[in-house]
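Chain X:
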Amino acid sequence: MNQHQVIWQALPYRQLSRDQLYAILNARVAVFVVEQDCPYQDIDGMDAEAIHVLGTSPADQLLAYARILPPGKRFAEPSIGRVLTTAAGRGRGLGRTLMERSLRAAEQHFPGQAIRISAQQYLESFYVSLGFETVRGPYPEDGIPHLEMLRLGASESRSEQRER
């Protein structure tokens, strides 16, 4: 299967089916808790307010996922998190496509606003290639070095962001 056979959706929580929600939660635990050996509370009460970006196979298998939180939920700006590619989706460049789709969805829901993320430090160059700048860190988050990164919105200048 290639990238062209991936079905992309950006859905609010209320539009997720039970099967989609189960697949999302299962993938988040598999990647972040089991694979990264990082016990933490994944179900954090923020999913109901999020936009969920899913990349699935034609057979409805979850391949890639990210969560977009509204401004004021995690940061002052909208944020993208829980970014993952499942074992079944790896090796196809889906991570970049997932982030590009997530950025477009964030722009659609929160036009012109900057986006802030808490990224695993080893992925810094990947996020820089998507227009993010490191603004803080590294700092430990769930035992893993992270960086706070910002991608300016279309209507914001660097000087406006520095004043925040």
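Chain Y:
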Amino acid sequence: MSSVAAFPSARHQDATGLRRLFVRDLVVASEIGVHAHEKGRRQRVRINLDLDVEEGAGPREDRITEVVDYEDIVVRLRKLVTADHVNLVETLAERIAQLCLTDRRVRRARVRVEKLDVFGDLASVGVEIERQNSRI
């Protein structure tokens, strides 16, 4: 076994490293649901994101432009979730994943969407998906 294959250079490791950006427990009022009583009204959804971001060498100059900006993600996420009525949490999760994957540095997005007000005797129902960036 060659030493190059067994022990890649530090530069190679930096170029292929990942950083995990996350958003935890964002609660937004959304028009979501397939039932008549869910149309035309908002209900709370909780969103959690885990984004695997290509790290490269990391932020060298300590500037926001060198990283995926979580504030930008949250602002766009709020706008998306409140824009239109969506029937399914699965559809909303797919739209959120696509929003996150528009940045080429985001290699993988894990998205969890939970409806919080469906049943009185449980905390939430929902879906979690994981999508990879097809442009890599």
